[in-house]
Design a protein that fits this description.
Elongation Factor Tu (Ef-tu), domain 3, six-stranded mixed beta sheet, Rossmann fold, Alpha-Beta Plaits, 5 domains, eight-stranded antiparallel beta sheet, alpha+beta, 592 residues, 14 helices, 34% strand
Length: 592
Amino acid sequence: MKNIRNFCIIAHIDHGKSTIADKLIQETNTLKKNIIQNQVLDNMDLEREKGITIKSHAIQMNYQFKGDQYILNLIDTPGHVDFSYEVLRSINVCEGALLVVDATQGIQAQTIANLRLAINQNLKIIPILNKIDIVKSSYHDIISKLEFLLKCDKKDIILASGKTGLGINLILQSIIQNIPSPNGNNNETLKAVIFDSFYDIYKGIIVYCKILQGYVCKGDKLKLNSNKYHFTSEEVGILKIKRYAKNSIETGNVGYIVTGIKNPNIIKIGDLIINSTSNYTPNISIIENNPTVYAGVYPINNKDYSYFKTIMDKLKLNDASIEYKPEFSNMLGLGLRCGFLGMLHMDIIRERLIREFNINVMMTMPSVSYFVYDKFGKKNIINNPSDIPTQYKYIEEPFVMVSIITKYEFIGKVLNLSLDKRGIMLNQKHIDNENIEILIEIPLSEVVFDFYDKLKSVTKGYSTFNYYNNGYKKSNLSKIDIKLNDKSIDALVSLVHSEKAYIIGKNICKKLKDILPKKQFEIKIQAVINNKVIARETVKSVRKDVTSKCYGGDISRKKKLLSKQKKGKKIMQKLGNIEIPNNAFISIIKIK
């Protein structure tokens, strides 16, 4: 066990984390050269297309150093803020972390956020300055900032290049020399913590785990500590891109267990696997997530709802950060109200449903959760704006404390952006001669949609961004109902600040006018607040020439046909179905 090292790689998005991982795998000859490719740990098509890591991936490497053979368990982690839950559960099973910083961009948002997660878990940090082969200016100021941030010496920072392989050997040696070996005793009863899982249609649920103490073999009688569910280990082994079966996994090592369990709701991330005869009571806390964006997700064909619900149960095994519960819409039918960690996370889940499970879904307007107090003062948690009653006392919305580190020259633009998002500056802290940290309180609904993108734009990328929950506060909000031919569309209901309600309602109507397909009847679009119409647009009907069969004769024949068509259109306007395209919701998000 003294020769085992468990570590992860943490970094901001696009700082070369996956490229460093590729070079570590090549240097240790873990995979054959004919199967090595760029971003080898990113095995999803989505990850390759978008150039980002979405899922944590574990791989075991062997490396010889000073005559001893070492086992290095690497867990690659995502860099985008929307996948911080993946980072947290990876960090939970490691003793050390490689902190990768891009020499051309410096220390950025997720660098600091992920570093705080690692420090809170008491991980040994190895700082790496990547891409020094393409840096055009001096990177000594970045080194100084790393020294200040980590309280380390300049010699502790490894200069590397994932592209050329520079410094890779130094990284491997530093992992062995600086990251501690795992604790535990192989002679004690089994205790293994689950950090990931997925569903196999033939083998059932396969869990990825770290053995904290004891060992596990094929055929062992085991149970889950949280719910005392008993099962038999059908196969155990280690991870090297593919699964490699072994006779046993011992203390300190990372591997997988084929459980044979078919019910996806039984397994929880952070749970412990113990021997079936053990009476171990204390449990490592189940890792909970905190969704920031909620949206309704509906199968395009409502007959697929049962299949869709089963799919979501299986997808949650692989991405435990999703939360969902059944929901019904008058227009869209049966669906699920899902909680996501951000807008990118929501988009990725939609893509995965289409690609991995071959089911098309429609997503409604995203929202955050609110506290709505009725006229008796009772508090109700509302995740869907359409559930807000017509009469209520007041609404409280979630606020967050936003920490922004930027250069002095961008202070004015950052504050203007924050004010436009209803933010209030609370404090500012001078970090050095170039950078300042600004603390701003902003409603969560203003942050989760496009705040980060606009912040990067106004600061030319020279800013870091992180936020923390700061409770709920009373706000002046208005509920905008959208009606099509006097029918309220619950999937398009949104809750916005009263000062922006009129302009947003007006723009939604205009956008729907451009998006909705024309019918043989007129479509009336209205935005309504408190039963008062604040905006209206009309989609003109498609005209069918019913008089084309009249080649002559009295004019009364044509008038009779036109009158009949007019009556028919009035009936169709009342009874006709109006289909809302999926891109309507995406377009309205951009308006908000």
